[in-house]
Write a structure and sequence with these properties.
The chain has about 325 residues and is mainly alpha-helical. The protein has a single domain, classed as A middle domain of Talin 1, CATH 1.20.1420.30.
Length: about 325
């Protein structure tokens, strides 16, 4: 038991340090390439911090347990908005440049809604998986092009001119890789120790995917978010959340369907997916306004975090009351 606890603590420490190094490397790369950090968040950070979810999806589906993969994807998206964004806003109110974020949040919300018809038959087929996977690259490319066109030098997205980081690209890539490696290893330690306790008390694979594994695989996003807000790189934080959620919907669920088609658990469509869509809608509404800048303050952060805990608390109540 002490070994499991030590593993959990070490995992958290690796996540914290890895997140700081990852943001440092991302910031330097954005500066050297004269890219707005939301592009880094949508692409490099979004893909990298979704790597645990994609790996778990492939392994779980290949092992005949696609329910864990689906629960992981849906639960991670809920955690990214409720937990990650909520904690980030509590630490430091996030000033977003709505001209850049509005399009990306609209795309995320549309992907969330347009994916629903694929599940109307109550199953995730191999064709469904292929459709989701095939949509990922063109959508990401479109969002990158739109972000570059909407870049404004005087905004917080102008990391190329405002950043104090002075680092060559090779060194920045090195820190990016080191940070990602530490975050992935740390997340694995945290998830492994948490799963041990969950299985000991008989929690189902779907619920484990929605809760423990989802939160665990969202820890890299949390580490990036905390390090990002402390460095006032708000667009990197929001870009990472948007990018990660898009990768979860299209890549993680797509991988699960392509490898192991299966019937969907009824609670996913009746409860968990609508909750995820609701969190996404709230985030979109927060950024959709006519002002040049929008702030996600501590009050909103507290509401998001509270809603996240209510969702998880209701699941815990259902588990232990039956």
């Amino acid at each position: 038991m002490l070994l499991i606890l030590a593993t959990f603590v070490v995992g958290l420490a690796l996540l914290a340090f890895g997140g700081d190094r990852f943001v440092l490397g991302s910031e330097a790369i954005a500066k050297n390439l004269k890219l707005p950090p939301i592009v880094i968040g949508l692409t490099i950070a979004g893909f990298a911090t979704s790597a645990p979810e994609m790996l778990i999806s492939a392994v779980a589906s290949a092992g005949g347990n696609p329910s864990l993969a689906l629960g992981n994807a849906v639960g991670s998206n809920i955690a990214n908005i409720g937990l990650v964004l909520g904690v980030a806003a509590l630490i430091q109110p996030l000033t977003l440049h709505s001209a850049a974020t509005r399009q990306q949040l609209l795309a995320l919300f549309l992907v969330t809604i347009l994916a629903v018809p694929l599940f109307f038959d109550g199953s995730l087929s191999r064709n469904d998986g292929y459709i989701l996977l095939a949509s990922l690259l063109p959508l990401t490319a479109l969002l990158v092009v739109l972000s570059l066109r909407s870049k404004q030098p005087d905004s917080t997205t102008a990391i190329a001119t405002s950043s104090s980081v002075d680092m060559g690209t090779p060194k920045a890539v090195m820190w990016l890789i080191i940070g990602l490696t530490l975050m992935l290893f740390g997340a694995d330690q945290v998830v492994t120790s948490a799963e041990f306790f969950a299985r000991e008390i008989g929690i189902s694979d779907l619920v484990i995917g929605l809760t423990i594994v989802a939160v665990g695989t969202s820890l890299p996003e949390l580490a990036v978010a905390i390090a990002g807000v402390l460095k006032r790189r708000y667009d990197l934080v929001i870009g990472n959340i948007i990018g990660s959620n898009i990768f979860n919907l299209l890549a993680v669920i797509g991988i699960a369907g392509a490898i192991e088609p299966h019937k969907l658990d009824g609670r996913v469509l009746e409860l968990d997916y609508p909750v995820m869509a609701g969190f996404t809608l709230v985030l979109f509404v927060l950024a959709y306004n006519q002002r040049k800048k929008q702030v996600i303050g501590r009050l909103v952060g507290g509401i998001l975090l509270s809603a996240f805990f209510v969702y998880h608390g209701s699941m815990a109540w259902n588990i232990f009351s039956t």
